[in-house]
Amino acid sequence: MARTDALQGSLDLLVLTILSRRPRLHGYAIMAAIASTSGEVLRAEEGSLYPALYRMEEAGWIRAEWIKKDTGRRARVYELTAAGKKQLGAEESRWQSVSLAINRVLREV
Amino acid sequence: MSLWSRILNAVHGERLNREIEEELQSHIEEAIASGHVADEARRTFGSILRQREASHGIRAAEWLESLLADTKFGWRQLCRNKVMSVAAVLSLALGIGSCVAAFRLIDALLWRPLPISNSSKLYVLSRKLIGPEGRPIEDGYWATPDFKVMRDAVKDQADLIAISEADRTDITWSTDDDMEKAHVVYASGNMFPLFGLEPALGRLLAPADDRGRGLAPYAVLSWDYWNHRLGRDPHVLGRSLHIGDQTFEIIGVGPREFTGTETGTVTDIFLPLSMSGLATQDSVRWHHVFLMLKPGVNPATALEPLRQHLSAVSRAFEADCSTCFRGETQASIDRLLNKKLVFNPAGAGISDLQKDYRRYLGVLGLLAALVLLIACVNVANMMTAQAAARAQEMALRISIGAGRRRLVQLILIQSALLALVASVLGALFAAWSAPFVLSLVNPPDNPARLALPADWRVLLFAFGLIVLVVLLLGLLPALRASVVRPVAALKGGEDPRAPRRLMRVAIALQIAFCCLVLFLSSLFVASFQRLQNRPLGFSTDRLLLLETVAGKGQLPVVWNQTAEALRAVPGVNSVAISGWPLLGRIMINSDISINGAPPSPTPAFFLNVSPGWLPTMKIPLVSGRDFRSQDASPGAAIVNETFVKTFFPGQDPIGRTFERGANQPLNTIVGVTPDVPYHDLREPSPAVFYVPFDEIDDKSAPSAVGFASFTIHTDAKDPLALANSLRQLIAERHNGLRVSNITTQLDLVRDQTIRERLIAMLAAFFAAVALLLAGIGLYAVLNYSVLQRRREIGIRMAIGSTRAGIVRIVTLDVFLMIALGGCTGVALGFGAARYVGSLFYQVKATDADMIALPACAILLTALVATLPAVLRALRTDPTEILRAE
Fold first, then answer.
1. B693, B715, B737 - which closes a domain
2. Into how many domains does chain B fold?
């Protein structure tokens, strides 16, 4: 449970970061990337990942495309848009200032 | 993705669901492929359905999706009750169409601004005074010299413009051509520039054309006239046209939209004011005066000082004017000078048509609105019944989580669907009916012409009307549906009377509206019938009228010879001549003074007639004799009974004398006729005297006659059959006489009642529709209530209620509502009738038969409408009902 809480409010940042490094990932790959790059600490739930993806797609930060997989099934892959790159910068600096603030609070107490 | 993609997704909701599902499935497959156990992979996902719903909500515009779903559902609901829906749509369409048509007419005649610049700064000047009969009147006509003085007095703040009424005038294009009619307007040269109008061709009249009689013989054609009479001939400039003995050169064509300032009449030809012979006369008031504020002058502060200044200037002019009040008594001069100058906004133009029809159109609008209201109540009732039948469905929807907002939306959408379909049909109806009604407004030979464009004004009104209708239809059922308490409804026991109570109120409303419509209609129809059947005192049978003109005038002997020639034509029974026809457009009064005394306060009207005119018109003589061929005017006179009562009360008038104004020659009364209507069928007959057609001047020499009307009694049933050959015959005599207008006495009488006929026809139509709709509404409500109460009826029958008892419980409250509604309707009717009382002829709202007629009609309708429901109630089989429950 602690793992999910840690993700509160930062799922967008994680997804955007992952996509900025490795474009054209489908949902499962994004989830897996979050897990592996965080050393299995952070895990995005399927139930929040897809709504987040659709929301960001609506907002125009990422765009989606159907591709044909080797298995014959179709998969929907996502990549960052220009607006998404800008958003990533904003999210990143917000995260920095928040974590800085939290650290400061932790030291004070 | 954007709003657009969300809208697209909403429209293609199914495809979107498939896509989301496919993506989730592909995710699960990836998970399994990377080593997860299948069950676990699925479990981590939770319910696929919930995922899909959540995702769907993000990717599709939910409001639109629910809107679409509700629209589909509403449409299916409407299709399920086809008969009801068609009836609803038709009645709404009729209501909406009538309202829009009424609005188009009212707007076009009364509200639409003239297509000129600064129409909101345009006012018309008139004067309020006490008329000769002691009633307040408003005088809108001015003498040209007076206008000029006033114009110069206020030239710093405002411009004054003189414009005459559009007169139907005889014109000829070249002297050999036949005469034709055109609407001619005399206008001061500043009119076109101040109105900001540009010529379509040539140039328009300018202030420089105000030069004096004969000095600016120029004419400007209206675009409309140039279009329909001259086929937009580009070479029309420089051509000449003749009016009377004047010749005008055409110098230009006006702009396309501008048809003059007289709403309802399209001006054909504009002439300079100064070219009229009346323009130099101090005492002839013949044109309107408009005032246009200069730019930058604030109407709120400037108008009152302007009014006072103009009033003083005009009063000074009239007080100084030596010819204005010649022969009047001092009291009468005081009365005429004591008048109040007023400004009326004239941005929408001014015309007699507006004055005549303002109230009629008001009534028309009211009737149309009432019919629409009745239709709305009907449809709302229908929807309430449907909603009541769907109470269980609504309760179910609420208990499984439908928002109440969504339920309201569902019902409002259904009413919007009805209203939209109805408004399409209504638009068609309005497109046809507005011009149709307009075509009935004036006599066929001089139709009223109004632009009736379907522009943003009309569209805006129609849109507002539709919104109103949707709310009227849907709001009540929607609110009812949204307060459904699921527990009670699902138990099947919510108060079953609630919808019935609502519908009963609706019945009362509907009957009240219907009663109002019927009441007003019966007043208008009775008015028309009494006017039409009013005894005339003369015969209109087989009477042909040839209104004839003679350029500069011809001596009476020429006219008499022509009459003699007409008499010789086979098929002509008798021929007489009068100055103008009875009940035509012309009325002329004259002062009457007895024994050299100053003129009496009430003038009398006169008509020149030839010997034999009275018998031709079948007007009998009460005493005395008809004119003889040696009688001339002044000399002999025949008077009507009102004339005798007014000027010779209690005396034998034969042989007595009167003068037409002080110090005029004597006229000796030789005969007395009964009163016959002179100019207006509605008014009581004024004092009228007839003088011989042959007039002589001071030196006993015959004087020329410029126009007169041959009154011809034909053998054939249709007098018009002879018209053309007689017209030809007159033309072939080449004696200067020309027929300018052909009509029959019957048509003139009919034209008198044209307004009453129109409103009576429309009122009767609306009354029939209202009655039909109210009948349908009653039937539906009663039928529904019997269906709802069949359990109760069954039980009552089973425990021994009589048939009379059943009929009573089924119909009692409905008839109470009818009585309540009827009383309200009549009360409303009295209120409305007071407002339109001046439109009635010899009919009062308090006449017993005026109330009895609508009451009977409504009762009869109610009986017919309730019969099926009552029969159904009586046929209820208690055993069957009780077993089924």
1. B715
2. 4
Interatomic CA distance for residues B159 and B804, integer angstroms: 79
Amino acid at B119: S
Query: How does residue B802 score in pLDDT terms, banded at 50, 70 and 90?
Result: confident
Question: Given an 8 Å threshold on Cβ–Cβ distance, is B26 in contact with A74?
Answer: yes
| pLDDT bucket at A1, cuts 50 / 70 / 90 | very low
Confidence of residue A109 (pLDDT cuts 50, 70, 90): low
Question: What angle do the packed helices A27-37 and A11-21 form, to 10 degrees?
Answer: 100
Hey, are the CB atoms on A54 and B58 less than 8 Å from each other?
yes
Region B28-37 average pLDDT: 79
**Same-domain pairing of B373 and B403:** yes
Per-residue model confidence (pLDDT) at position A74: 84
Counting runs of H as helices and runs of E as strands, what totals does chain A give?
5, 3
**pLDDT, tens only, A77-91:** 998 899 889 989 988
Tokens of B210: 């105000």
| Domain boundary pick from B347, B367, B384 | B347
Contact A75 B1 (CB under 8 A): no
Residue B723 maps to a domain: no
Token pair listed for B133: 């009969």
Span of B724-733, B772-781, B783-792 with lowest mean pLDDT: B783-792
Residue of chain B whose alpha carbon sits nearest to that of A69: B26
- Kindly determine whether residue A50 and residue B23, on different chains, have CB atoms separated by under 8 Å: yes
User: Could you tell me which residues come within 8 angstroms of residue A57 by beta carbon, excluding any fewer than 6 positions away?
Assistant: A63, A64, A78, B1, B59
Helices (H) and strands (E) in chain B, counts: 27, 23
Instruction: Confirm whether B570 is domain-assigned.
Output: yes
H-run or E-run covering B781: helix B754-788
**Residue B740 located in a structural domain:** no
Mean pLDDT within B808-820: 86
Same domain for B496 and B569, yes or no, is no
CB-nearest to B58 from A29, A58, A76 is A58
Tell me if ipTM is over 0.85: no
Please tell me the predicted confidence (pLDDT) of residue B473: 80
Would you call B18 an interface residue with chain A, using a CB distance cutoff of 8 Å? no
* Start-to-end Cα distance in chain B: 57
Structure tokens at B624: 């005395």
Same domain, B803 and B851: yes
Band (pLDDT 50/70/90 cuts) for residue B492 is low
CB neighbour burial string for B778-813, b if at least 16 within 10 angstroms, e if fewer: bbbbbbbbbebbbeebbebbeeeeeeeebeeebbee
pLDDT per position as a tens digit, B230-262 = 899 889 999 989 888 889 999 999 999 899 999
Give chain A's domains with CATH numbers: 2-108 (1.10.10.10)
Q: At what angle do helices B38-45 and B13-33 cross, to 10 degrees?
A: 140
pLDDT surpassing 70 at residue B838: yes
Q: Do A51 and B2 touch (CB under 8 A)?
A: no
Note whether A46 contacts B: Cβ–Cβ < 8 A.
Answer: yes
The model scores a pTM over 0.80 = no
Q: Are residues B369 and B469 in the same domain?
A: yes
* B508 and B587 part of one domain: no
Domain with B831 in it: 353-533+754-884
Same domain for B27 and B157, yes or no, is no
Mark whether B242 and B272 lie in a shared domain: yes
Residues B274, B278, B281: CA angle, nearest 5 degrees = 105
Which two structure tokens, joined as six digits, stand for B268?
A: 């054909």
The answer for residues whose C-beta is within 8 angstroms of residue B756's C-beta and 6 or more apart is B524, B527, B528, B531, B532, B841
The yes-or-no verdict on residue A6 having pLDDT over 50 is no
Amino acid at B483: V
Q: Per the domain annotation, does B830 fall within a domain?
A: yes
Which residues touch B53 (CB under 8 Å, ≥6 apart)? none
Residues B201 and B319 in one domain: yes
Nearest-angstrom CA–CA distance, B341 and B731? 48
